[in-house]
Amino acid sequence: MDEGLSVIRVRDVLIVTMPADPDDPTVAALQESVLVALEQFGARGVVLDVSAVETLDSFFARTVAETAQMIGLMGGQTVLAGMRPSVAITATQLGLTLGTAMTAMDVDRALDLLGHE
Amino acid sequence: MIRKDGSARAIEITLQDWEQRKKFSGFSDEDAQLLQQLQPVAEAFADAVVEELYRQFLNFEETRNFFSDSAMLARVKAAQKIYFLGLTAGDYGEKYFENRLHIGRIHQKIGLTPRWYMGAYSIYAQLVFPRVIEAVKPAEKALRTFGALLKLIALDTELAITTYIAASEEVISRQAREIMEIATPVIQVWEGVVIAPLIGTLDSGRTQQFMEQLLVRLVDTKSSIALVDITGVPAIDTQTAQHLVETVSAVRLLGAQVILTGIRPAIAQTIVHLGVDLSGIVTRSSLTAGLRVAFDLAGVTVRARNGPSMPASVPPNKEPQGTLM
Amino acid sequence: MSSPPLSKLHIRAEIDMVAVRRSLRVAASELGFGITDVTRIVTAASELSRNIFRYAGSGTMKWRALDEGGRTGIEITFEDKGPGIVDVEQAMQSGYSTGGSLGMGLPGAQRLMDDFDIRSSIGKGTTIVIKKWVRR
User: Fold this and answer.
1) What residue ranges do the domains of chain B occupy?
2) Which tens digit of pLDDT belongs to each residue from B117-174?
């Protein structure tokens, strides 16, 4: 099972797909990979696809919030897409926040959201 | 007994209850002694009694079906003998009690209704009576011994039935929960819009189940608006209000939003007095008003053939139509 | 009356947390917990095992199935011989905040579970026992 994240560029948006149960180094790599790709492609938005993610704990949430903030500083927008209901309920009960990241039901809607800006 | 998740355990029989039942039936230490003295006699005729009991069971079609395979019949007979000898073991405390509870649960699981094992107890009494009269002297002592046995059998019967009922009620409450799921439907009324009318009291368990159902339906229908109507909810406490707030937050994580409607004056007062923060959540007093907002957010205009179109009011967060020149 | 099996994992490195999550996900599912409760259990365990790694360096997680009064549950124990928590009460109150220290996330883990028991001695270590029952 490939536990790495993947980064794809679609026009001027980056789509980052997270694996089902990323270990801490993979989550930390999210920040690095995204910012580097952002600069390289001059993307104006990042879609973080978490549809496969089964556990979203405080470390993951904090990384997402920080990354969204950094993306913002670099002039981009962040959308978290496809969160599973069980993960959404747990994250809410845990009191996690995602900072400035927006949310969308799936990658398609996330792209719509970024397109309308 | 209510558990943390709000569900109730139908009947919880404690050791204390057992001691109380014994006292109530007048089952004394003397009774326990008499029964214990009967043990060597009981051991002598245990096999014969068990054989006769099962001969009766196999005689009737309804009970014969429970003992269809011979390996199972052998196991059950062995267990029955142990049970029978337990009646004269002399110790009628915690271990005895736990064992009898266990029997009731098993009977419920295999579907052996009280009707049939009540029959079994009667048969025991009939089979044992002449043997006790024969084995215990004088006759007066034999009667007291038999009396003790009857008291114990009555106690056992009551336990077995109570446990059977409790186990059945567990099945019923599980089914009630399943009905509840059907009773909290999440219905798609338009592309991207679902309505969830909540009716009845919301306890913690029910609200959590609703939360899951709502979010799953939102994903299934790819909806971005959930109209949650609480007109049918008579009262709301802090925990339920808290769960509603959590529901709204969880829905947001899915990129959708909640419009909360049906907030009646009593509930509005409760929410404010409880200090629950519902700011940031769109709320309306009626389902119709909520629909107006929902349709507007969904970019839908509803127009009566003769009359005004809906939404009739200026939609929130939008510039008025037309420009001023 | 609780029943085996008892399962134990050592937490020494970040990678061990993946094993913690994976084994608890399987265990909780097999015990009959619904998907959301499985997620709650795994997430709480993720938080608590990360604490061990972060504050104590190493420790253990062990879990066992519970069977009491006809209901099924899971009990998970997190143990370390680390420095211990100086102010347990304060730790049980500090939650998450955006931008800033997140504390140990103990109240969050408590909210996700049905029972939460913490014992800590300075210089000796910390033991946290959490339980959750299958919703019937």
Assistant:
1) 15-177, 187-310
2) 777 788 888 888 888 888 888 989 988 988 898 888 888 888 877 777 777 777 887 7
What's the distance, CA B291 to chain centroid? 36
DSSP B168-197: HHHHHHHHHHHHHHHHS--EEEETTEEEEE
pLDDT digits (tens, 9 = 90+) for C8-51: 999 988 889 999 999 999 999 999 999 999 999 999 999 999 99
Tell me which of C36, C115, C136 to substitute to probe the interface with B (most B C-beta atoms closer than 10 Å).
C136
Q: pLDDT, tens digit, for every residue of B242-253?
A: 888 899 999 999
Nearest by CB to residue A59, choosing from C18, C21, C50, is C50
**The token pair that represents A79 in the structure block:** 């959308």
Q: Do A104 and B212 touch (CB under 8 A)?
A: no
User: Residue A8 falls within a domain, yes or no?
Assistant: no
**Hey, what are C39's tokens?**
């997620």
How many structural domains comprise chain A? 1
Residue A105 is assigned to a structural domain of this protein: no
* ipTM above 0.95 for this complex: no
Across the interface, do A56 and C43 touch by the CB < 8 Å criterion? yes
- Asked if residue B158 lies in contact with residue B103, where contact means CB atoms within 8 angstroms, the answer is no
CA distance A62 to chain B (A): 15
CATH number belonging to domain B15-177: 1.10.490.10
CA distances in angstroms from C87 to B122, C91, C122, C126, listed in the order given = 65, 6, 10, 12
Where residue A26 sits, what CATH number does that domain have? 3.30.750.24
Q: Is the dihedral of CA B265, B269, B270, B275 positive or negative?
A: positive
Q: How far is A65 from chain C (nearest CA, A)?
A: 8
Please tell me what DSSP assigns to residue B66. Answer: G
Neighbours of chain B (3+ CB pairs under 8 A): A, C
Buried b vs exposed e over B235-265: b needs ≥16 C-beta within 10 Å? Answer: ebeeebbebbbbbbbbbbbbbbbbbbbbbee
List, in order of start, the domains of chain C with CATH numbers.
2-133 (3.30.565.10)
Q: Which range of residues forms the domain containing residue A76?
A: 18-98
A80–B219 C-beta distance less than 8 A: no
Using an 8 Å Cβ cutoff, are B35 and B88 in contact? yes
- Nearest-Cα residue of chain C relative to residue A28: C14
DSSP 8-state secondary structure symbol assigned to residue C83: S
What sign does the CA torsion over A86, A87, A91, A92 have?
negative
Please give the CATH architecture assigned to the domain spanning B187-310: 2-Layer Sandwich (3.30)
Q: Which residues of B touch A (CB under 8 A)?
A: 208, 211-212, 215-216, 218-219, 222, 224, 246, 249-256
Distance, CA of B279 to CA of B275 (rounded, Å) = 11
